[in-house]
Design brief:
The protein has 137 residues and is mainly α. Helices cover 71% and strands 0% of the residues. It has a domain at 2-84: Alpha Horseshoe (Serine Threonine Protein Phosphatase 5, Tetratricopeptide repeat). Helix 2 runs parallel beside helix 4 and helix 5 runs antiparallel to helix 6.
């Protein structure tokens, strides 16, 4: 991947993202985070922007920085919605669990799951909201 990325501008956001992902997939998590940060700074956008946020948050969670991971996920959620919303919720749920906030994580996961159920969507969301003391939707 580094050889392919070397064919691009050194600050090409897509190349930085892909090199970061290759490092992440091969166990070089800390190095991956650096590439992910550079990709964002270089202007990574679109679906890859959401993916880099999810991947970086996951890496930070495993590197012992779950609070920072939650901040990244919240910022990304504020950017709008796309086909990676459920992956974002999965990462948030795991990060909340890492912080010992299991009920919040379960709530996030159930709310993400609800639209995929053949029935009981509204009940699932209401129970999930109840887990964290929120009124039904």
């Amino acid at each position: 991947m580094k050889d392919l990325a070397a064919e691009c501008d050194p600050e090409d956001p897509v190349a930085l993202f892909e090199v970061g992902g290759a490092h992440d997939s091969t166990g070089f998590t800390q190095t991956a985070v650096g590439y992910y940060e550079r990709a964002i700074e270089a202007g990574l956008s679109g679906v890859r922007r959401r993916r880099v946020s999810i991947q970086m948050a996951s890496s930070l969670r495993e590197l012992g920085e779950p609070e920072r991971a939650l901040e990244i996920l919240a910022e990304e959620r504020g950017r709008g919605s796309n086909e990676y919303d459920d992956a974002l919720a999965m990462c948030e749920a795991l990060t909340l669990a890492k912080l010992g906030r299991d009920r919040e994580g379960l709530s996030v996961a159930l709310i993400a799951l609800a639209p995929h159920l053949p029935r009981y969507q509204r009940s699932t969301v209401n129970y999930a909201r109840g887990l964290v003391g929120l009124d039904p939707a």
